[in-house]
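Protein modeling request. Please complete all fields; requests missing the sequence field cannot be processed.
Requester role: graduate student
Desired output: 3D structure, token encoding
Chains: 1
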Amino acid sequence: MRLSTIVQYFVAAILFWTVIAPPARSCAREELPAELTFLHDSRAEVTLLASQTIGESPDGNQWLTLSRVVLIKSDEVPIIIVGGEELWYVESGQIVLTGDSGEVVTASEGQQALLVTPGQYTVAFEGDNCPSALRLEFSSIIAMRLSSDETAPELGPNGIPCPEGETLLQTAESVSKRPFPAQGFIARLSLSPELFLGPAPFSGPVGCTVEAGSIAFDGPESVNLGLTSGSWVSVATGQAHWMFANGRDQTEVLMVGAFATDDAAPPVQPTPTPVVGVTGSSYLSPTFGFRLNWDSSWNVVLESTDAGGDTLHLSNGVSELYFQSYGAFTGDAITCVDGIAAQLPAQQGFSNVRPGETADGKPILTGDARLRTGVYDLTYTNESGVFEYTEYVECRMLPQPQTVLVITQIVLAESYPVQIEPVREILANLDTGSGG
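Delivered output (436 residues):
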């Protein structure tokens, strides 16, 4: 978002507001594992592909490995795998898994299959248009291909590019410890641009692999990753983390994991799903996750959310206080404050805009590229008369890449000195998730 656009929103907030309803969610909350409902509540579209209760691995291995298994047209013999308990989801065509014990498991497109008995299986595909399946292993035993190592054909009979068989993600041993029994699952997340998810500690390990688009991944332990298509990350039990969908296009992510069931005793209880927006005298930003609260002297005038960010307007009858967050901002806190100040004189009704000054005549302008504040005096004229106002302007860079929080206080100049402290009390408990 260009700085001029932020200024337009900022100035418009002084005079009027337009509420835009958030986009509708097409997913069904009740269909999800309990610990994934926060994704639904955060406006992500979640499709549960496969889910099944799993037990403890006979060999003690607890790794999670997600791979895509495809039909190799030149294969003359079926694929042979050696595994323990596994969860499969058929993306296209049909699979037939036949074990040494004579067990036969068949699943068609859109269906799941569970392998329970450890041992050697052959995997046969049926179907013309690029048959493929997702395979989630719950141990560290690696699949073996005893047939061709050739790649899949570039195009299927219907002209659609075929997927390649590959390992999509694999957890490390230190990450993979899970409760027993556990609910194993495979899910697909569809994230709209600039959507923020988190924080989210789970009762079991999870892994995410990006299929399309890109995400910023933060936590645990101050880890900051940029994940693009084909890259993946895994998180251990109980470790809180955040995801932010970058770019302007829809982001698609495969998530797998092994959560505690009702019969298991999870080592860490998941944090209750927070209520976003205004709750009583507190606020949680639906898009960017920052928090604040206020005392009974303040009232909520308006809150709104659109595709670009969130806004909150508070008033105590003397000061008007605005919190406006935006994504796709390419500047920093210094350019944000300076740009707003530079364009204020051009706004209708504004005149004689000048920096506020300290007692010794120095401009009230402090901070750095992460957090910048300024105070400005101005004359505002309308049909009711001529008024002297003071505006406090603050820009804070949020933890998500290219996101900014603009905070403004608008008050009659004569009241500003006694209104500094009430605003400071609110800003003192503002939590952006980055220690600021």
